[in-house]
Amino acid sequence: MNIPIRKMPLHRKILLALVLGAIFGALFNISKYKLDITYRQATEQKSATIETWERIDFFRSDQAAPVASFGKEDQLKLLQWYRGLENKEKQSLIARVTWGDGRTEIRFTEVQSIEKVKTIAVVIRPIGTLFIRLLMFIAIPLVLASLIVGAASLGDIRKVGRIGGKTLALYMVTTAVAITIGLVMANIIKPGFRLSAESSEKLMTEFQPDIRAKIQQKTAISMIDTIINIVPQNPINALASGDMLPIVFFAVMVGLTLTLVRKEKSDPVVSFFDGFSDTMIQMVHLVMKIAPFGVFALISATVGEFGFDILQTLLWYAVTLIIGFVLHLLIVYSSIVKFLGRMNPLKFFRGLREAMLIAFSSSSSAATLPVNMECCEKNLGIPKQITSFVLPLGATINMDGTAMYQGVATAFIAQVYGHDLTIAEQLTVVLTATLASIGTAPVPGVGLIMLIIVLRSVNVPEEGIALILGIDRILDMCRTVLNITGDAACATAIARTEGVLGEPSAEAISS
User: Fold this and answer.
1) In which order are the strands placed within the sheet that holds 93-99?
2) Which of 311, 318, 326, 314 lies closest to 181, judged by CA?
């Protein structure tokens, strides 16, 4: 049956955009050989695109011997080397290009910049970035307003404590289970031992410069500091910086305090935030109209820039993680939804599909939060008083996908270095990754910083992060889906145990 694009359900439009974006990115992917070089000749700045080159040698103006040389397969290595130079060093470079036909010519003096040649698939990334920014700017006001109304409607601090206790317990358990599943899969498949020494050396050479700054950052886990920092010194500053846990604390305190204020004074305040929350939801509806275009741009740019070649090198590592993700999704979350939430898992996943697709495209739990809240309330029948508390908290501390990734990545890197983690070390990984996931910000790529903490806890070389850096973006998309699905599964269970879970909308079930 042919369905006009305009009448097609939103989740199908997003899925279609995702598939077409991947195809578009694959067709217009960035060349592994072409380079754009900007250089200065006399007083004039020029640029040129070089291709079919065999070798590039770089010289200093005062030196006869090359300071660096690269073959035609070393595009990424060349770019990493160039980015590591100081500006003064870059401007004194002379590039000598040896072409494929053997012709040699010094063409580029005072090199200003060297970049990959961008394709249309990458050029359109700002459309996707704009879509993500629109969702991000809705998230904080929506959480604040919804949580104030939700806490005020609960009206009892003991009820808030009960819901909060259930939520934290469920989040910590699912996170620990996720890491355990990941480690079990890593022990069975042993992806690190399947990586050849040649591939390992190449990955380390190409990506090590990118992780130097991350390794130098001071990272440590302090549960006391985490708890203290939940209470903001300045709630306005927390709102401005998007620090979710302090925002949740502030909103809950405002909501609970409103129940202690005389009704004639508290009602206008609650009505204002209730109306403001509904306004933000309507804004989500407006932003979601451009979701297919944003998803298309994000996926095409990701595939166009990174391609699928890196998957071949790190196939077993990717397979280990993806199997772990699928097992956790289908077994753990389905069990929570079925036995604690008493909901058909198929209905659950069907109702959450828009949020899952946005999570996959954006790699950001924070950007997906408004969509997740809308799906849970509209499609799953979870009331606002639960979603406004459980989901923002989950977007901050419930990172099952990120935690599993940290466990598998630690085992993988250890195996590459010839070190099989002992049971005690694996238990340390479970504990450390569980705690580290609490401090993981809900934005793309930050899981790498938390991974450093986990690696240090079992004395695995931090430099090994370079082994997985090339594929991190693609797997980040997958683990974000797990993160937001876990939040929704726990919200379903909490709503059922509180006796407030409604029925999924007829529209969500039939579409």
Assistant:
1) 68-71, 53-60, 93-99, 104-109
2) 326
End-to-end CA distance of the chain: 14
Tell me the C-alpha distance between 375 and 351, whole Å.
6
Instruction: Indicate if the pLDDT at residue 137 is higher than 60.
Output: yes
Pairing type for strands 35-41 and 44-50 reads antiparallel
DSSP structural state of residue 352: T
Pinpoint the alpha helices (H) of 289-314.
Answer: 291-306, 309-313
Contact 402/409 with Cβ under 8 angstroms?
A: no
- The rounded distance, in Å, linking the Cα atoms of 167 and 384 is 15
Q: Which tokens in the block code for residue 407?
A: 């466990």
What pLDDT, in 10s, does the model give residues 222-231?
667 777 888 9
Mean of all residue pLDDT scores within the chain: 86
The Cα 465–Cα 52 span in angstroms is 32
Ramachandran bin of 42, using left for φ above 0, alpha for ψ from -120 to 50, beta for the remaining angles: left
Cβ proximity of 37 and 123 under 8 Å: no
- The amino acid at 440: T
pLDDT in tens, 267-316: 999 999 999 999 998 999 999 999 999 999 999 988 888 776 667 788 89
Q: Mean pLDDT check: name the lowest of 45-54, 234-243, 275-284, 306-315.
A: 306-315
Residue 499 phi, psi dihedral angles, 5° rounding: 75, 25
pTM summary value: 0.85
The one-letter amino acid at 136: M
Of 452, 481, 484, the C-alpha closest to 468 is 452
Range with lowest mean pLDDT among 84-98, 290-304, 496-510? 496-510
- Can you tell me the mean pLDDT for 503-510? 59
Structure tokens that stand for 131 in this block: 């879509």
Cβ atoms 376, 508 nearer than 8 A: no
For residues 158 and 455, give the distance between their C-alpha atoms in angstroms, rounded to a whole number.
40
148, amino acid identity:
I
11 CB-side CA count, 13 A: 19
Structure tokens at 396: 């901050």
Question: Which of the four pLDDT bands, split at 50, 70 and 90, describes residue 319?
Answer: very high
Among the residues of 352-399, which ranges form H helices? Answer: 353-362, 365-379, 384-397
What SS3 class is residue 148? helix
